[in-house]
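Hi R.,

Here's the input for the zinc ion complex you asked about:
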Amino acid sequence: MEYFVNVILPIPLENYFTYRVSEEQARLLQPGMRVAVSFGKSKIYTALVYELHHTPPTAYKAKDIHQILDEHALVNPIQLEHWKWIASYYMCSMGEVFRSALPGALLLESETLILGNKEADLEEVALRDDEFLVMEALEHQSSLRVKDVVSIVEKKRILPLLNRLVKKNAIVLREDLKEQYKPKMLRYIKLNSSYTSEEALQQLLENISRAPKQSRAVLALFQLQATTNKPVKMSDLEIEANVSKAVIRSLIKKEILEEYFVRIDRISHDQGGDYSALKSLNKFQTIALDKITEEFENKNVTLLHGVTSSGKTEVYMRLLESCLNSGRQALYLLPEIALTTQLITRLQKYFGKKLSVYHSKYSMQERVEVWNNLVSKKEKAQLIIGARSALFLPYSDLGLIIVDEEHESSFKQFDPAPRYHARDAAIVLASMHNCKVLLGSATPSIESFNNARNGKYGYAKIDRRFGDVLMPEIELVDIKQQHRKRRMKGHFSQRLLEEITLTLEEKEQVILFQNRRGYAPIVECTTCGHSPQCPNCDVSLTYHQYRDQLRCHYCGHQTPMEKDCQACGNFTLDTKGFGTEQVAEEIKGLFPEAKVGRMDLDTTRGKHSYEKIITAFEQQEFDILVGTQMITKGLDFRHVNLVGIMNADTLLNFPDFRAHERSFQLLTQVAGRAGRTKKRGKVLIQTYNPYHQILKQVSTDDYLGMFQEQLYEREQYHYPPANRLIRITLKDKDYNKLNEASSWFAKALRNVFSQGVLGPEFPVIPRIRNQYLKHILVKSPREVSFAQTKNSIKRIGNSFNAISQYKSVRIIYNVDHL
Ligand code: ADP
Ligand code: ZN
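And here is the predicted structure with zinc ion in place:
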C-alpha cells in the first residue's frame, strides 16, 4: 500500500499539495506536524501535514518529502479548523493563513536569510562539524540563504541543522533583527534621607558653604523640587545648578545626595499601591461584573460598554482570574501592543508567572517560546496578552477571550492575506473552544452594539468614571467665525489659547491632537496652482520642515523642498493644511516657556522612542504633547487637564462609510484622556462645521444618538450591518490593462448578481508605488447565503486568472472591513 500526505505549503495555493511518504514515516506523522518538502524547481519549504491517506494525486506524480521536522504536532486540530474558517471566510488560501500564523522561525525555507547572531558567544556553544561550517561561512559573509547552506554543507536536508543553530542562539533570521525590548532605567537625584530635618539641613549647608559648586548643586535641587514638585533628573540638576556631573557624583559619594533609578516601564501611577491584591470593585463595576456573568449563562458573547476611565480593566481582571482558577486558558486581545506598556505592567503585577505576552514585533525566540509553552500546556502560557496575531497560537482549552477596545479598526489586517478581523475571528475561535468572549469599549462598533441590541450578544454597562471623576466638558469652537473676527493665531483659536494658558498656569498638562503628521500636507504655487506630486503615487507630497523635505506618506519617496515652482518658475510656493510638526512649532512660538513634545510616526521610529515619549510626558517633562491618533489609545495620564483637537473636519470628511462612526470613536477616545483625576477635564474641538451631527453627539456624549443615526444610514445605503460587503481590488502597473480587466470583472459579477455591484472605480489615491488600483464593491443582502456569494466571486476570480492577457493583474479580496 502506498502512503501520502496532503500538506499546506506557506504560499497562496488553492489546494493542498500531496507528497509520498514511506510506511514508517506514515506511522510517525500526524496532522499538524511540519515536514520539509521541495516544491517547484528548487525551492525548499516548511510545510504542515493536513491529512494522511492512500490516494495518489491524479494531476502530478507525488514527490517524496525531504524529512519530518517535528516529533509532536505543533498545530492542533482546533487551529486547523479555525484556519480553514479564516481561509474560506476571508477568501484566501490555507497557505497564507499558515504563513502568517506561525512565527517565522518555525517556517524556514530556501529564501530565508540567515545571519550570525552578533551577541552570541560562540566559544561557549558546542558546535557540530556541519554547524561549524555554517558559522565559519557567516564570518566571511554577512548573510546566507538556505540554499547557500545546502551547498556549504553539501547536504539537502539542512532545516534541522538550522533549527539547531537557532536554538543555540548562534544565528538569527532576517526578520528577527528588530530590537528586543530592554527596559530603560532613568536616573534621579534626591537628598539623602538623613538630611530631612530642618537642623540637619542647616548644618549641611553650613558645612559645604566653602564649596560653592556643591552648595549650588544642593540649593538647585531644593529649587527644582519646590518649583516643579516632580522627581529631579540628574541631567536637569546639572543644568539648573550649572555644575558638572563630577560635582554631583562627589556629593553622592559623600552621602549628601542619593541617586535612584526607576525602570521606566514599571512606573506606576498610584505609587505605593498594592498590586499583589486585586482592587475591590466599586458599585458600578460590581453590577457590570454580575451582569456579564449572568449574560454568559446563555450567551457566548457579551459587550461591556463602559465610558473611558470607568475601570473596565479591573472587571476584565476578575473574569480572567476566575477563568484561570477553573484551569482553562485565557486570551486578552488588544489592538496594538506597543501602545499598552502601562496595561501590560498592570496585568503582569497581578498574574505574574501565568502571563505571556505575544506580539509580532517580539523577537523570534520569544515568540517560539510562547508557542512551545502552549503546545506543552505550561502554566506560564495560561494567560496570553497580545495583538491580533495571538489568535493563531496553539490553545488547547480556551475559557475566555477578552477583546479590549473592540471598535478599533487596527484589529483588521490589511496586508498581506489573510485579511481577517481579529475580533470576528476570535468569536469564531471561541465557539470552537466552547469559550466565552467579552468585547469591551467606551464606543462600541455599530456592528457589536447592534448585536447586543438584537439580543445576539449580552450587554453590560458602566456609565460612571471610576472615583466619580466627571466626564470631561466638551466645547466646540467655530474656527470659521474666529477667522472672520480675526481671532486666530496660526491654527489656534483665542478660546483654545485661553484654556492652554490657564492649564499651564495650574501646572497641568495639555494634549493637542492633529491627525496628520509632517508640516503641511500640500505645497501649492500661488501663481499657477501647481503642487508637487509623488512620482510613484497619485498623491501630493507632504512638506516636512525639519529636514526641509517633501515626502510621500504612501511609498516613502523623499526629495528636497523646491525653491521655485517646477511648473511656472515663480518663487511663490505656499503650504496648505497643517500637520503635527507645524502645530508643535506654532505652540512653541506662542508659549516659549512651555516644554513641547511630539508623538507621531516621525518621532517614534527609533527603538523604544514611543515609550520614551510616554514616560517623559508622564513624568511631566513636557507640558504639552502634540500627536496624531497614536495618543488616543488606552493611555492613562494623570495630569492632563486639557485636550485640544486642532481640526475635526479632516476626520469627518474622509470618504468611507465608517468615517462618521470612526470620528465619533476617535474624538471620544481622545477626549477621554482629559481629566482622569479629581478635576473635571476640558476638551476643545476646533471645527469649521460646529453644527455637524457627529460633533454634537461627541460633545453631548450621545452614543445612542450616533448609533441610531448611523444605523439608519447604513440601512438606507445597504452597508453593514444591514448588508455584507466584499471589496475586490485589482492592481496593475498598466493603466489601460487595469481598466479593461476591471471592466471584465465587474461585468462578470453583474451577470451573476442582478444588483449590489458597484464600480469599478478608482480609489481616492488611484496609484500607489506605481501600481494603479481599481475597486469593485459587492453588497450582499443578509437573506442571501454569504458563502454562496463568495463562491461565485471566487469562481469569477478563477476564470479571470485563466485569461492570459490579465495574468499580471493582482486581485485582492477584503471582506466586511474595507
Ligand atoms: P478604562 O479601561 O475603563 O478606561 P481603567 O481600567 O484604565 O479604565 O481605569 C481608570 C483608572 O481607575 C485607572 O487608573 C485604574 O487604576 C483606576 N481604577 C479602576 N477601577 C478601580 C478600582 N476598583 N479600585 C481602584 N482603582 C481603580
Ligand atoms: Zn509615493
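One thing worth noting: The radius of gyration is 30 Å.

Cheers,
M.
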